[in-house]
Amino acid sequence: MPTPFAATAPAGSPPSSDEAAEPGSLVERAYQALRSRAIDFAFRPGETVKVLALSKQLGLSRTPVKEALNRLVTEGLFEATPSGFVARSPDVDEIVDLCEMRSVLETAGFRLACERADDAGIEALAAWWSTVSPGYADLSVTETTRVDEAFHERFVALGGNRELARQLRMVCARIRFFRTIDLDRQEYRTPYYDDHLAIIDALRRRDADAGAAVIGRHIAMSRERAVEVIKEALARIFTRKPAATAR
Length: 247
Description:
Elements: H1 23-39, H2 51-58, H3 62-74, E1 78-81, E2 84-87, H4 92-116, H5 119-132, H6 141-157, H7 162-182, H8 189-204, H9 208-219, H10 223-237
Antiparallel strand pairs: 1-2
Helix pairs in contact: 1-3, 2-3, 4-6, 4-7, 4-9, 4-10, 5-6, 5-8, 6-7, 7-10, 8-9
């Protein structure tokens, strides 16, 4: 669920007490709020966001909002144009490429985990999954997506490469909306559950090749399926009330 915005400050009101806070913290606040909305396509594809309206919603000046949007440009969630910041549009090639990138990152992370993780860390992952798995089939599709991400991020973290784990989180965020749609059918849940058990088993045996094979199958999305997902995504996006955009 998108992070809620702070209450809108009345027009012409003095800066809030937050404005006296450390500038970096204000940028981070704007970044987290806008990133959450961009990930969930709260901004309609191709529309130019209205910085002033967003700053009022967040109770901030325009400067931290602009800085936050510039950060989101580097993550591929907005595009900087002469007319302003433009919300991203779904793209088949992008989805397929990001799924491939996620597979590469997770495979590398799994191989490192096989080499570096101690037995206690592996068993902690297995124990965490055992507490989640009994209700897995009954989770909402949004919860299923987030639990799946958490599982993969946890085994990658066992490899000890923090930069690899950070890049994985960024990739997962960019495709989360599409994966939520992809998982919005019950028949996809059982294979995901079984794959998680297979990954834990391969990690316990330190079998990097077996784990890599499961990861590749688990993440792959065909171009045909990506086209279907984008059609469904656009249908959902354009039935919502638009976020703050330029007039």
